[in-house]
């Protein structure tokens, strides 16, 4: 069984890496459509439409024009999420999505951070570097 450390991962907008990545998350869901009929002993369902969304959190870097700046709210981006790194034979997730929100935050004893939420438009694919 293979295990990976979070520090191995990376995130890219197209071919360009985000700078200063702190964390990322990916959520996939499938709707269910009930198809139970009279006389059935239990409810039954069919798979409906699938959807995905992602979140990327970075230390804010206003000079990261190909990653953080390119992820402005409303932009359509190709998001590539690499849980185990981006070297040959590594698995990653890729899809086109719309940046739906962005939030900057700062604390007295911390770094300024920026967080992006992306909603997928179309299927999410699994690929290999």
If you average the pLDDT, what whole number results?
A: 94
Order of helices and strands, N to C? EEEEEEEE
CATH superfamily, by name, is Hcp1-like
**If you consult CATH, what is the topology?**
Pnp Oxidase, Chain A
Low-pLDDT windows of residues: none
Shape: elongated
Number of strands: 8
Rg, rounded, reads: 18 Å
The class by helix and strand makeup works out as: mainly beta
CATH architecture: Roll
Number of discrete domains: 1
Fraction of residues in H or I helices: under 10%
CATH structural class = Mainly Beta
End-to-end Cα distance:
20 Å
Strand content: over 45%
Q: How many strands, what sense, and barrel or not for the largest sheet?
A: 8 strands, antiparallel
Separate helix tally:
0
In short:
By secondary structure, this protein is mostly beta strands. The chain is 0% helix and 53% strand.
Looking at this protein, list some descriptive labels.
elongated, mainly beta, eight-stranded antiparallel beta sheet, 129 residues, 0% helix, 53% strand, Pnp Oxidase, Chain A
Task: Walk me through the topology.
Layout: E1 10-13, E2 16-17, E3 21-34, E4 45-59, E5 76-82, E6 91-105, E7 113-120, E8 125-128
Antiparallel strand pairs: 1-2, 1-5, 3-4, 4-7, 5-6, 6-7, 6-8
What does it look like?
The chain is mainly β. It has a single domain (6-128), classed as Pnp Oxidase, Chain A, CATH 2.30.110. It is built from no helices and 8 strands. The protein has strands spanning 10-13, 16-17, 21-34, 45-59, 76-82, 91-105, 113-120, 125-128. Strands 1, 2, 3, 4, 5, 6, 7 and 8 form an 8-stranded antiparallel sheet that branches. The two termini are 20 Å apart.
């Amino acid at each position: 069984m293979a295990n990976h450390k979070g520090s191995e991962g990376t995130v890219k907008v197209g071919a360009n890496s985000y700078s200063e990545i702190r964390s990322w998350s990916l959520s996939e869901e499938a709707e269910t459509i009930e198809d139970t009929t009279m006389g059935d002993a239990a409810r039954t369902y069919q798979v409906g439409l699938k959807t995905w969304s992602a979140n990327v959190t970075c230390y804010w870097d206003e000079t990261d024009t190909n990653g953080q700046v390119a992820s402005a709210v409303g932009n359509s981006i190709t998001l590539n999420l690499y849980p185990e790194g981006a070297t040959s034979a590594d698995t990653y997730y890729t899809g086109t999505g719309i940046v739906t929100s962005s939030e900057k935050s700062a604390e007295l004893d911390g770094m300024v951070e920026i967080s992006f939420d992306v909603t997928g438009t179309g299927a999410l694919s699994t690929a290999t570097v």
